[in-house]
Design a protein that fits this description.
This is Tryptophan--tRNA ligase, cytoplasmic. By secondary structure, the protein is of the alpha/beta class. The strands form 4 sheets. Strands 5-6-11-10-7-8-9 form a 7-stranded mixed β-sheet, with helices on both faces. A two-stranded antiparallel ribbon has the order 1-2. It has a two-stranded antiparallel ribbon with strand order 3-4. Bound molecules: tryptophan (TRP). The site of tryptophan (TRP) has 12 residues, from strand 7 and strand 10.
């Protein structure tokens, strides 16, 4: 084994990796500080990426590097370790991304199978959104119950949200909103969008005023997705909490029914976390109850809520569903999405704090082109000859993954998958298709956002009745 990276041979890298894996496990066993565990995991992931770069193979515990190809078995790719998925961290060792089927088992949710997709089509009378057709929204809780009720003319409402931690939103942030907009259109129902400026103040090193300002700035990007002002209420926690007695009453009810021990178990809080964090989950729970919005639901407390969100938010809503019956409310139903992978690979999600991992909604066509070409992790082969002969691997290819999110035409996408796998389509050509899909999409978003005035933001964010009779 003679390849070198930064002076280290593959064997040295392999040994470093093995040692780092041991370190992560022992830190976890010792229940070490979360920050220390996270740092160790980050290093582990970085070493794995280096290793793969040098060897062209995934690191496999117990199998030192060799010239022979290793199997792509997921269990061994992960070295037997669990993926990390919580509201603050997403990390896996697998280049294919988080194992979502395992997550369903771990979280105790249900898979969105073909039968449910068909049923959504039947009840809504619309072709299912590509996110449903392609398993991007892949898990749910109680969606059948929502559809049963809807078929009996019982309405429901949508609730989603965003933590406004910066001005900079990236394409991954749009996923839940794009899907929520589709749900709102096909079911014709009210939508509430929570901007948790309070949450970001509690968790990040930001001033209250900055968080509040980010909420209003982010609201513009959300509005630019095309929501109907007559059917949508967007609120900042910092503003709405103080102005709505009904909302605050629900927060307090939740607070009374969840113990410190429970949130410790669910969120991993420790004795040194500020009490704001410890009580925050009650604030994310409250919008799941219709009585938190008397102006919309005329005081009704029994309107069923459906929450589209990324799966990392599930801990909040497991807690919410657990308290709901004890305070006399229906449990919210949920639709969970997968994560939007970072440019560098599906081991983690796109993160606004790492500029090179993200395509921002403010990027120019040129920036998009450069980032995709330079940073998008490729499942292609090193040389054209090899690629033509062996073909690429779309399962780990970020450009292909992004196309599954954004390319509407199923047949075109399937053809790309086949051509890439067979080697007819080269990495550069695949990236070009992605660039040509992203550029007009982002430009259109920027146009839409430019047309969102402060006055419109104010309208969306004013508590008021919506165009529904409850
Ligand atoms: N906590 C979420 C975040 O940091 C924001 C959020 C609040 C949310 N309520 C929600 C997300 C409901 C999805 C659904 O992004």
């Amino acid at each position: 084994v003679i390849d070198c990276v930064g002076g280290a041979t593959t064997m040295e890298l392999y040994e470093q990796l093995t040692a780092q894996g041991d370190k992560v496990r022992s830190l976890k066993t010792a229940k070490a500080d979360k920050a220390d565990v996270d740092a160790a995991i980050q290093l582990l992931l970085k070493l794995k990426v280096d290793y793969k770069e040098v060897t062209g193979q995934d690191y496999k515990a117990g199998c030192p590097p060799s010239g022979t190809a290793v199997s792509n078995d997921r269990q061994s790719e992960n070295g037997g370790e669990e993926d990390t998925v919580d509201p603050w961290n997403v990390a896996t060792n697998s280049a294919k991304g988080v194992d979502y089927d395992k997550l369903i088992v771990r979280f105790g949710s249900s898979k969105i199978d073909q039968e449910l997709v068909d049923r959504i089509e039947k009840v809504s009378g619309q072709k299912p959104h590509r996110f449903l057709r392609r398993g991007i929204f892949f898990s749910h809780r109680d969606m059948n119950q929502v559809l049963d009720a809807y078929e009996k003319q019982k309405s429901f409402y949508l609730y989603t949200g965003r933590g406004p931690s910066s001005q900079a939103m990236h394409v991954g942030h749009l996923i839940p909103f794009v899907f929520t907009k589709w749900l709102q259109d096909v079911f014709d129902i009210p939508l509430v969008i929570q901007l948790t400026d309070d949450e970001k103040y509690l968790w990040k090193d930001l001033s209250l005023e900055d968080c509040h300002r980010f909420a209003e700035e982010n609201a513009k990007d959300i509005i630019a997705c095309g929501f109907d002002v007559n059917k949508t209420f967007i609120f900042s926690d910092l503003d709405y909490m103080g102005s709505s007695p009904e909302f605050y009453r629900n927060v307090v009810k939740v607070q009374k029914h969840v113990t410190f021990n429970q949130v410790k178990g669910i969120f991993g809080f420790s004795d040194s976390d500020c009490i704001g964090k410890i009580s925050f989950p009650a604030i994310q729970a409250a919008p799941a109850f219709s009585s938190s919005f008397p102006q919309i639901f005329k005081g009704r407390k029994d309107v069923q809520c459906l929450i589209p969100c990324a799966i990392d938010q599930d801990p909040y809503f497991r807690m919410t569903r657990d308290v709901a019956p004890r305070i006399g409310y229906p449990k919210p139903a949920l639709l969970h999405s997968t994560f939007f992978p970072a440019l560098q690979g599906a081991q983690t999600k796109m993160s606004a704090s790492d500029a090179n991992s993200s395509i921002f909604l403010t990027d120019t066509p040129k920036q998009i082109k450069n980032k995709v070409n330079k940073h998008a992790f490729s499942g292609g082969k090193d040389t054209i000859e090899e690629h033509r002969e062996q073909g690429g691997n779309p399962d780990i290819d970020v450009a292909f993954m992004y196309l599954t999110f954004f390319m509407e035409d199923d047949e075109q996408l399937e053809k790309i998958r086949q051509d890439y796998t067979s080697g007819i389509l080269l990495t550069g050509e695949l990236k070009k298709m992605l660039i040509e899909t992203l550029q007009p999409m982002i430009t259109a978003h920027q146009e839409n956002r430019k047309n969102v005035t402060d006055e419109m933001v104010k309208q969306f964010m004013t508590p008021r009745p919506l165009n529904f009779n409850f």
